[in-house]
Amino acid sequence: MRARLLAIIRAIAFIALALILCGIIFEASGFSAPDMFSAILDGAFLSDGALIHDLRWACPLFVSATGVVVAFRCGYFNVGTQGQFYLGGVGATVAVALLPGLPAVIVTLVAILAGIGFGALWAFWPGWLRIRSGTDEVITTLMGNFIAGLLLVWVTSGPLKDPSGSGQVTSSPPVPLAIRLSTDTGVSVWILALTVLVGVVTWVLVNRTAFGVLGGLAGRNPVMVTWQGARLSRLGLGAFLFSGATAGLAGAMEVLGPDGRLVSGFSPAHGFTAVLIALVANLSVSGSVIVALFFGGLASASLYLPVIAGLPSAAIDMVNAAIALFITSRAMPGWLRLPRRNRS
Amino acid sequence: MMDLIVAVLRTGTPMIYVAMAGVLAQRAGVWNLGLEGLMITGACASAVIAEQTGSVALGLLGAVGFCVLLSALLWLVIEKLKANPIIAGLGLTGLGLGGTDFGIQAVYGSEGAVTAPAGIPTLGPAFGPFGVLDALVLAMPVMVFGVWFACRRTRFGLRLTASGEHPFAARSVGADPARMRLIALLLGGVLAGLGGAELSLGGLDIFSVGMTAGRGFMAFSAVIFGAGHPVGATFAALFFALVEFLGIKAQLVFGEHAPRDFVLMLPYIATVLGIWISARLRGGALLSAIEMRDG
Predict the structure, then answer these.
(1) Which CATH number do you get for residue A285?
(2) What is the per-residue burial (b if ≥16 Cβ within 10 Å, else e) of A306-315?
(3) Is residue A30 included in any domain, yes or no?
(4) With contacts defined as CB-CB under 8 Å, which chain A residues touch B263?
(5) For chain B, does the N or the C end have fewer beta carbons within 10 angstroms?
């Protein structure tokens, strides 16, 4: 209990440090830091309907974050969530486009599975390269993000282009409402049920299965796990596939849920934020729930800022990045230091 | 052929400067994934300052100043707060990408691009096709030689490499690894600032939000591909630039048959191939390497 409390205090302390850094940058660029933070707070949690928006962004973020938790616990820095998320969206849209006329329930189900499959596929090749030849997964997954982004541009302006669409941002034709998981609000029984399901499955996987326990050990001491006879390569590949699958599911949820279509360059900060949620939650599934609600709020604030408050939305990107900069810090004053055994 | 050499040099030079920053950090034992953030900060600061003051020299100085400041911040977080270098580096990159976007909007409203009145001085039309090469491109071989000399032929370089490869050995001869890392990161800040400035002021003299598009990460990959050797990293960066050039050429030649988005993917794919080859040749980390990277 003490360890958990300390972990929370620690996370809050580093978020505060990150906010101070951002405040200094806001002031230096001629904005008033208190105004900026109060606008962010309004957009995230206090204005009308903010909590619904919060939930709309938090659900897919949490789903992706669970995958990051699994991969990072195994010791693999899969930072390709963004690309896997995009591929998931593409997969779901392809399924919807290929299956006209079938019953809506089946199409939805196939689209979700396609999203999961495409996402897992996009995590498979960096995982394979990592496990077979030790190719650094941080670079391959980052490059995968750029490639997936371009693939998304090509898909939405080529094969899956909405013929009636116009304007700068290309997209696929809208998904019929019967197939969708939610309306544009992004909060529905289905979305919430899927999110809860992923949370429960991941929690059980991490805390109650051999895969989760061995994976957690492998992340801290791979040599020991090998000596104990576990197949490290299988664990690692499993972790990659799982994180890709969850990110893909999140992408499918966006397309079938609030977005209602595949939009070129949608949710550009999703992957980074999902990684951040997992890290702030200290790689705990249950912790990720609360942290996801916090960052879901920030994500909705990044839409609120430019539209309502007339402030640059990049402020949110900066807040997120500053939190990432500090959150993994291990140096703490003595009384805040975590006992090492209970760290994760 | 001439235009190939000129184009590859112009595209490759910003990456080479940033890659040299990566080489110094790598040798000191820091996986500097903040390079992308440093590069865009350099590109933004140089263009904005050149536009505001009209002086390219002040722009370069400002770019270097900002990048050194950010590098110092990264050092503080990694060494003093004991953060994970990978995540802290990615955080710094995010701070650079978000901060430049924010800064541009703060100064210019929501235009998203700045045009500088002038760029870095070039050779001029007297030199034919080579006339478009600017001072930083010409200084690049000297800079690479300098980094090579410092790393491979001086006491400083030995201590730097020791700090990365075997901090205990470095400590035993009186070199403080933490201090060596600070020096490496600060010098890297200077080089990354120049690389970023070359990106924005070395051709079109425009800065636009997100213009690095992963070139900082590519520069980091060039370090891995080049095995942390300055000359190796230089050729790796030139290779990535060559792939980019060939893609653009292919599009000009084949037109519709070479879709634009796939052509744009080529440098990223080349980067993946590059570090895969380097892992095959030199053996990568087959076990989880997080503990080692923390070192």
Answers:
(1) 1.10.3470
(2) beebebbbbb
(3) no
(4) none
(5) N
Structural tokens at position B231? 């000359």
Q: Do A328 and B98 touch (CB under 8 A)?
A: no
For the beta carbon of residue B56, count every other beta carbon within 10 angstroms: 23
**How many Cβ atoms from other residues are within 10 Å of residue B234's Cβ?**
26
**Residue A174 — pLDDT band, cuts 50, 70, 90?**
confident
Which of these, B291, B293, B87, lies nearest to A224 by C-alpha position? Answer: B291
Nearest to A86 by CA among A241, A250, A198: A250
Helices (H), A221-269: 222-227, 232-256
**Position A325, amino acid:** L
Q: Using one digit for the tens of pLDDT, what is the confidence trace for A219-262? A: 777 788 878 777 888 888 999 999 999 999 999 999 999 988 89
Cα dihedral sign, A16-A21-A22-A27: positive
Q: Residue A158 and residue B259: Cβ atoms within 8 Å?
A: yes
Domain assignment of residue A108, yes or no: yes
CATH numbers and ranges of domains, chain B: 2-294 (1.10.3470)
| Ramachandran class of A231: left when φ > 0, alpha when ψ lies in -120 to 50, beta otherwise | beta
Residue keyed to tokens 């402020």: A315
Check: CB of residue A216 under 8 Å from CB of residue A76: no
- Structural domain count, chain A: 1
Phi/psi for B207 (5° steps) reads: -110, 130
- Nearest residue of chain B to residue A128 (CA atoms): B276
- A157's CB contacts (< 8 A; 6+ apart) are A170, A264, B261
Count CA atoms closer than 13 A to A272's CA, side-chain side.
27
Residue B261's closest CA among A2, A128, A136, A157? A157
Residue-range definition of the domain harbouring residue A123:
58-310
What is chain A's mean pLDDT, rounded?
Answer: 88
At B178, list the tokens.
Answer: 């933490």
Cβ–Cβ below 8 Å for A219 and B290: yes
Q: Is residue A26 in a domain?
A: no
Q: How far is CA A139 from the centre of its chain?
A: 18
